[in-house]
Amino acid sequence: MKKILAASALAIATLSVSPILSAPAIAQAKGVGVADVRVAAARSNAFQTASKQIETTYKAQIDQQQSRGQTLQAEVNVLVAKYNEEIKKTPRNETAVQAAGKAVQDKQRAAQAELGQIGAPIDLAIAYVEDQISVRMNEAIKAAMTAKKVDLLVNPEAVIARENNVDITDAVVAELNRILPNVSTAVPAGYQPGQLVQQRNQQLMDQARAAQGTRPATPAPAPTGTAPTTR
Fold first, then answer.
1. 177 contacts 46 by C-beta, under 8 angstroms
2. In terms of Cα–Cα distance, which of 176, 200, 152, 158 is closest to 15?
3. Residue 88 CB: number of other CB atoms within 10 A?
4. Distance between CA atoms of 132 and 90, rounded to whole angstroms?
5. How far apart are CA 56 and CA 69, in angstroms?
């Protein structure tokens, strides 16, 4: 289960973190920092606590998934052994080899589907936790940038060389812990992964449109040139 949560953490917050600075602002940046927001999200108190809660709440499904996974792997291994036997036969029966290979692939696909169905409630709970953290990620990033006097923040993967003191990942974690100390693992009925981020993005778009609608209209420029004569 810990491996599942760790893998899930690699993708966390990637949808919600939007560019904060424009190209001209980048050129004028004075304070530059780096931060891995995926690591920050995974290290946050909210995610760590939620992970433990999920392991407890879904223990039956986790145990079932692991037990069934071992059984299915053993069944796949038997089919793989038969496939290897067919390959070693002389002369080789290509039809039998292809049939044995197909049996392995079919069994693997069926096993993945079965294990996915067992783990679906777990995956949904993880997605809900990630979603709640993702919605607040930009807020935490901006607060960390302000605290560290950084006006340009980049992903570590985009940096060739840097000093350790430019990494503000810990500051992002601290802001996340302050802004969002905990999240819920109780998935609401009808919830779909990414739903909270989509709703937040739509809300921001609506606010931007409303702000544009309240701005005073720019007056039309005064006409220039000679006024037309009338006859």
1. yes
2. 200
3. 7
4. 59
5. 20
Dist CA 200 CA 139 (whole Å): 12
Q: Are the beta carbons of 32 and 152 closer than 8 angstroms? A: yes
The upper half-sphere exposure of residue 49, i.e. CA atoms within 13 Å in the direction of its Cβ, equals 11
C-alpha span between 60 and 115 (Å, rounded): 13
Interhelix angle 45-57/94-147, nearest 10 degrees:
140
Query: What's the CA gap between 180 and 8, in Å, rounded?
Result: 19
Taking the model in full, what pTM does it have?
A: 0.76
pLDDT in tens, 82-119: 999 999 999 999 999 999 999 999 999 999 999 999 99
Q: What percentage of the chain exceeds 70 in pLDDT?
A: 79
Nearest to 148 by CA among 40, 26, 35, 16: 35
Place of tokens 């294990």: 115
CB contact at 8 A, 138 and 202: no
pLDDT tens profile 31-41: 888 899 999 99
